[in-house]
Write a structure and sequence with these properties.
By secondary structure, this protein is of the alpha/beta class. It has helices at 35-44, 64-71, 152-169, 201-207, 209-212, 215-224, 233-242, 257-265, 276-281, 300-307, 321-332, 347-350, 384-390, 404-407, 425-436, and strands at 3-9, 14-20, 24-28, 47-52, 74-78, 88-90, 95-99, 102-108, 117-123, 126-133, 175-178, 199-200, 269-272, 288-289, 314-318, 341-344, 361-363, 377-380, 392-393, 397-398, 417-420, 441-444, 453-455. The longest helix has 18 residues, at 152-169. The protein is globular, with a radius of gyration of 23 Å. The chain starts with a strand and ends with a strand.
Length: 456
Amino acid sequence: MFFVDTVEVPGLGNRSYLAGGPATAVVVDPPRDIDRVVAAAALRGVRISHVVETHVHNDYVSGGPELARITGAVYAVPAAAPVSYERLPVADGDALAVDEDLVLRAVATPGHTPHHTAYVLEERGEPVAVFTGGSLLIGTVGRPDLVEPRLTASLARAQHASAHRLAAELPDATTVLPTHGFGSMCAAGAGADGAGGTTTIGEQAAVNEAFAKDVDTFVADLLAGLDDVPAYYAHMGPLNSEGAAPVDLTPPAVADADEIAARLAAGEWVVDLRSRVAFAEGHVAGSYNIEAGDGPGGQLAVLLAWLIPWGRPVTLLADTPERLARAQRELVRVGIDRPAAAATGTPEEWVREGERPAGLRRAVFADLASGLPRDAVLVDVRRASERASAGHVEGSRHIPLHELRSRMREIPFGAQVWVHCAGGLRASVAASMLAAAGHEVVAVDDSFANAPVTGR
């Protein structure tokens, strides 16, 4: 009897899998923090015999090389993947014996990347599940524009063909287990939201956009709907091609108030991980607020990796050691390995003697009912796709959050700046960046459903 355990990576919208039988198991697309996978195998009482990658990932750093090293597992990677480390090259049709009566069969599914490979789990020769990586997702497919712009159109066509190949070769009851698509920016459209997120080949053949459209319509719609690519993606592929180093999750060096001030003065990033409400009530002037939630599904890793100049030292401020530890774990998944320093406690402890924490004004959309104050500007930091689909507040300036740092000069000094997003989190990030640059800022902490939308 086989099993499949899911290892959720909700902050990135991804899933990894541990699958096997009574004695041994395979890991598919492992996260960087492999201790979670090792613990899952220990709970099952199985030995990890194989670690497999569906492709060289562009949205996170894989823990595959390290997991294979510490477990002695065979590390299987698509043969055409551009990697520089020792691995078992896997080609279309190759089979890996996982456990008694269990085989993992490789199926070439190019599209998300040229070398993308899905893996069919067969029990006594019968397909029972397919690990589709970034090919066939729940309701959609993986985006084809992360490798090389000149390949995007041809890879989109390949995505369509790969989805149809899986549907043609596998029974309708085969469980579909994708890596991306639960909020991941690697998904090309609106797919699974992570609530349950289980499906079969037959279900996807009935509802997935890859089957509902002919290839030309599918490609045209897919390319038209592609959103901005997070800037840090440019660094993930090379890291995964080289093979990332083991992670170090020990606590960072402790920074006192003088060191925090010195790092700010040096142009380094000091990031306050507390809630946006707590940040508004008091924070170190010049620090940025990227809220790290109490659960595992926050946006810290994506937002910080997208916004920070790559390689810039970062100091983390948190109210508790537990929040700091969660943040470290999230950040190593996107290649931000070691904070330069960190501090836990309160803003009063993070500012130098004689100084006081800064504050930030918050508002809701109802406060705009009578109009903005004279000479004030309203900045919308949602992505272009959000603004196009949900409308906008008339007179607002559109500067997506990920463009704010490079477009800061477009916001006039001396004007009060009101900033909003879709729910408040990104508005707080943007407001903290604007305040650090010397602007008078008001963060609109409210759902866009309450906005006075007059433009579409």
